[in-house]
């Protein structure tokens, strides 16, 4: 009997040892798999950084911690695009919209600035002619994105759709807007002077921006959009600074397009302004007000879409072939603010739009767009006919239009987000 028990005990011990070894192997392979996937991730991130950060001929450290690389103009990320391999860079547009400089009256209101807005990195140097300034992407920037592939991209369906908007679609996307818009014609560009603020962002995955949208096509999967303005986006930039940005897409934010120069597409020609770099100074409540002027227009000769910042800086262009509808013209222009409302704690976010104050508070307190223009088929700047307005929840963010001699068509917009009327 005892022999049988011993035999059983021996077998049990062997079984336990085998099970232990199996578990150990499992744990080792799990940790190996973990290490493998994290080293794979690191490899992907490194490869992406190498693709984005082109070798510079000069590097400038900005006071805000950014690194600005001066990259030869012909080595910029745009030329990673297969269709741009033999592209001859257009160094300046063939035509500027007519009437541009008559509309830049600066006597807009009390304490209007006369000193030009600059970017913070200018304090520490400038890029040589023949190069363009590119904000260097760091490993942390890419790791904050939901995936390497999604880095530098907006989420699908983040566009304000004024008229026949399905309210469910709007609330699901978590994006909220306060905009003015025109539609019903062919548009070849848009311009505005935009008040610059530094809105407070509640959650790192939220943002607040103020921009111009140049839109073509329906609001389906094939929407074309060119966007430019200022934004605060902790997720994208790792801080709460107000930054100049652009965006484009030709398929409603699905596979094409990106912010700034984070993919191939936009061709920059300016050696003086860096996309994604901080704007300084910004407006303060009941104090000095600062604004930037942005113009996007279609060159009638080559068909490319150009962008100008202020009176002096022609930044570059989006080649016409990137788009389907915008290869011809835009069917809608929008101006205004957008925030992400991720509904932290099940309540409306307290992320601010514009200055964080409602339109009725007026100059020095609420944020504005002024001297609003569209570009017509003859390449003339025109005041828009019938400016519509749109906001999903006016108790959270609102918009009010007006018209006067100095500011032409203008509007105040924005708000605090969560408040007793916007729970």
Automatic annotation (TrEMBL):
Residues 169-423 form the Neprosin PEP catalytic domain. Transmembrane segments: none annotated. It comes from the Eukaryota. Gene3D superfamilies: Outer-capsid protein sigma 3, large lobe. Residues 151-170 are annotated as: Disordered. Residues 151-160 have a biased composition (Basic residues). This is Carboxyl-terminal peptidase. It comes from Perilla frutescens var. hirtella.
């Amino acid at each position: 009997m005892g022999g049988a028990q011993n035999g059983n005990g021996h077998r049990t011990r062997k079984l336990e040892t085998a099970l232990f070894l199996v578990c150990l192997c499992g744990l080792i392979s799990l940790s190996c798999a973990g290490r493998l996937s994290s080293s794979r991730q690191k490899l992907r991130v490194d490869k992406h950084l190498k693709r984005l950060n082109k070798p510079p001929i000069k590097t400038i450290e900005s006071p805000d911690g950014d690194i600005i690389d001066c990259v030869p103009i012909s080595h910029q990320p745009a030329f990673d695009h297969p269709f741009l391999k033999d592209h001859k860079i257009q160094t300046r547009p063939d035509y500027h919209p007519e009437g541009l400089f008559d509309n830049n009256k600066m006597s807009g209101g009390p304490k209007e600035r006369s000193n030009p807005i600059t970017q913070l990195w200018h304090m520490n140097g400038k890029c040589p002619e023949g190069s363009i300034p590119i904000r260097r992407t760091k490993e942390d920037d890419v790791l904050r994105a939901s995936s390497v592939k999604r880095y530098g991209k907006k989420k699908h369906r983040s566009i304000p759709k004024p008229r026949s908007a399905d309210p469910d679609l709007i609330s699901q996307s978590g994006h909220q807007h306060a905009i003015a818009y025109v539609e019903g014609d062919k548009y070849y560009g848009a311009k505005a002077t935009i008040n610059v603020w530094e809105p407070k962002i509640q959650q790192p995955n939220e943002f607040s921006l103020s921009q111009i949208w140049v839109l073509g096509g329906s609001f389906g999967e094939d929407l074309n959009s060119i966007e430019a303005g200022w934004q605060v986006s902790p997720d994208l930039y790792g801080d709460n600074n107000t930054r100049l940005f652009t965006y484009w897409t030709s398929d409603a934010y699905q596979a094409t397009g990106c912010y700034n120069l984070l993919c191939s597409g936009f061709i920059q020609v300016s050696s003086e302004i860096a996309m994604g770099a901080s704007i300084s100074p910004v407006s303060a409540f009941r104090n000095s007000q600062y604004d930037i002027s942005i113009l996007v227009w279609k060159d009638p000769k080559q068909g490319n879409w150009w962008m100008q910042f202020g009176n002096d800086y022609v930044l570059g262009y989006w080649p016409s072939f990137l788009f389907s509808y915008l290869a011809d013209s835009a069917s809608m222009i929008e101006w205004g603010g957008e925030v992400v409302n991720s509904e932290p704690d099940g309540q409306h976010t307290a992320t601010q739009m514009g200055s964080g104050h409602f339109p009725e508070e007026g100059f020095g307190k609420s944020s504005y767009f002024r001297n609003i223009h569209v570009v017509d088929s003859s390449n003339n700047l025109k005041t828009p006919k019938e400016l519509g307005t749109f906001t999903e929840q006016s108790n959270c963010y609102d918009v009010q239009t007006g018209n006067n001699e100095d500011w032409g068509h203008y509007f105040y917009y924005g708000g605090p987000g969560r408040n007793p009327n916007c729970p």
